[in-house]
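Page header: ASSEMBLY MODEL / two components / 402 residues total.
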Amino acid sequence: MDDGLLVVISGPSGAGKGTICSRLKEEFKDLKVSVSATTRKPREGEEEGISYFFINEEDFIKRINNDEFLEYAKVYGNYYGTPKSEVFRQLEEGNDIILEIDIQGALQVKKNYPKGVFIFILPPSLSELNKRIENRGTDSKEVIMKRMQCAYDELNYAFEYDYVVVNDEVETAVDKIKHIIFAEKNRAVRKKAIINKIREV
Amino acid sequence: MDDGLLVVISGPSGAGKGTICSRLKEEFKDLKVSVSATTRKPREGEEEGISYFFINEEDFIKRINNDEFLEYAKVYGNYYGTPKSEVFRQLEEGNDIILEIDIQGALQVKKNYPKGVFIFILPPSLSELNKRIENRGTDSKEVIMKRMQCAYDELNYAFEYDYVVVNDEVETAVDKIKHIIFAEKNRAVRKKAIINKIREV
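Prediction written out in full:
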């Protein structure tokens, strides 16, 4: 059997990664979501192994040193990471996995698993991005300015990805990603099993 | 504007390239078909510039030496080739082009235009391929044996392509190629124009 696809949805903050991923999960019921490990304390309602794998810092650092993460980062004093073991097991079982992640994380994943399908979500324009971040109402003017500068710089990374999808309209963007997922299943690099089978019959 | 796609449909004789290409042309009305040059004499009903560009051998060889062909071959004493000028002009105008071609030709095209989308059409099995070639009723037993040996060897080339599509059922195969064409339009390498535009606004 062919391995599943690791679909990495990434892009600047405010590009709409989260909304797109939610819609993709609705469309592809079989799509697995990878569960991250974190050293952050569980919040109310969060469940071990479903929301996160909750582990302590000593354990997390040991796992970093053992190269057990597809990617990890320290955010506001807490570690977050994607364990390789879980993701690789799912892929080997033929399951497709979706991973929503920032650009630094995606570049780490690419280094560790170049066979992944890396999709960069773009806002239709930087002024639209600015509007979206403002409308969320969660960031101060200073943070918004920082995010905008960051987004501008991050556009450079788009060419490290396999695909670039402009999110001007969510359904159109989701539709494009659906085509990408279907197309990628026919990549020659994923077809060794079937070619060998044809030879035999 | 982004360049059009050069979609190369290739694979062993009897895999069903021709049927698939006809269906794709029906589905994508804007898909252009490249017109080949040949030294063969025009047959009744064939039109210059539509069926073929009919040129003489001296002219053809001069064009080979000027590196004016995406690919060419000599078949039963006649030359056939795909002129670069026509194809590149269409691509630059943003038109997508489909090219149905044997494996040797496709490998030449890849060398000359690696940005193309190279799709290898596979029969579901070699015994099915054998059946299809027999059913065409155009080949002697000896030729069929040769074609089968050739197909077996040619499976090795599948991995030089971007995609491998098994043609067990024409509509399913056409559907897969439709997804591939839509997906390829979002390739990061084809998105330089749009990323620069986003930066400006």
